[in-house]
Amino acid sequence: MPGGHQPPPGSPWWTDALNDPWRDPHAPSAVVLPAPAPTGGPVLDPVPDPDAPRRSYTPVLLICLLTALLAGGIGGTLGFVFAVRGGYVGGPGTQLGAAGQQTPATVSRDPESFAGITQKVQPSVVTVHVTGAIGSGFVVSADGYVITNDHVVDGAGDTMSVSFSDGSTAPATLVGRAQESDIAVIKVAKSNLPAIEFGDSDAIAVGDPVLAFGSPLALENTVTAGIVSALDRTIEAGESGGATRYYAAIQTDAAVNQGNSGGPLVNAAGQVIGVNSVIRSVGGADTEAGNIGLAFAIPINQAKRIAQDIIDTGKARRTVIGAEVTTGGSSASGARLRSVEPAGPAAAAGLKAGDVLTKIDGHPLQDGTDLIALVRKYAPGAVVAVEYKRGTKTASASVTLAADTN
């Protein structure tokens, strides 16, 4: 080499570099070594070796699947438990109704509400069981007297019994009947009974609210509501071959059907004001008749008086005016007197055969049925004012009604 220099052993330079014809002798020479790895900077992931063996994901997938199944099972179980305990239906999270306190098993009712009146009256109401039929009645004394309809006990014999609202039963016997007024009294073989409270049927008005109690169509312990629809509705009724009955009734639109007969009609104070007795229908036999909003009750003032007579004497007094009247087919607007008893109340008041009574106690009369029904409403000894026509003249008189001596 020029200058006598020799390359040291292991030099990267060729040993004959100085003799290289392509070398620029004037270019500086340097040894370039690889730069050391930087410190503190980001470390890049190494490039994977495509020939290296791959890692399996099967265990990871199995773990995920088992976890999902376990979570679903636990969630479903908890949802079912909450649904059963919390009253849920239709699926977890669905609750019907607003959250709140549970209603107690027994709730106190306002005594003046229908429910309060029912709680007061129902223990006094009975179902009357006779041979092949069912009617209703109500207790009027603690020692077991019960008022019902005469047509309920007709043909009862010795097989009568009653049942109470608490499910208990007791045998009963007939005390007495008033056929034409359709009132009967029976005696229950049971003591310390809750007697119903009496009201005043002369104090009621059209539009007053009422409740009807009884066993319609053998459905015991039934209560229906309505109003007083009319007062002094005169009705003539009776079974074929039986007694003809006359009613100056309280009309109501409370639902009343076969089996309600004899049950109480009560006012808003829970007092009995009538005895449910008759219904009207739009055709068909009486046994097939159903409620159409026309029901009739005997005023309790009349029923109570008759029942007291039966209890005291075994027989009811019948109130009469002392005259026979023409019923049906009369062209006159009023009750025509066909005959007058010489010593009877009508004769004492100056009435004669042929007179046409147009009013009694201010109540208009259309025919003889009206007069009979309204007279029966009063007690013997009552004094009533009557208006009548005699020929072309109009007059008035006061009649003191009497009890039938038969």
From TrEMBL:
Q: InterPro entries, from UniProt? A: PDZ, PDZ_sf, Peptidase_S1_PA, Peptidase_S1C
Q: Which residues cross the membrane?
A: 60-84
| Pro residues bias locations | 1-11, 35-50
Stretches assigned to the PDZ domain: 310-367
- Respond yes or no to whether keyword Hydrolase is given for this record: yes
GO MF annotations for this entry? serine-type endopeptidase activity
Region Disordered: list its residue ranges. 1-51
NAD is among the record's keywords: no
For this UniProt record, the keywords arranged alphabetically read as follows: Hydrolase, Membrane, Protease, Transmembrane, Transmembrane helix
- SUPFAM superfamilies assigned: PDZ domain-like, Trypsin-like serine proteases
**Protein's GO biological process:** proteolysis
**Entry's family note:** Belongs to the peptidase S1C family.
Query: PANTHER family from the xrefs?
Result: SERINE PROTEASE FAMILY S1C HTRA-RELATED, SERINE PROTEASE HTRA2, MITOCHONDRIAL
**Name of the protein this chain belongs to:** PDZ domain-containing protein
Q: Which organism is it from?
A: Actinoplanes cyaneus
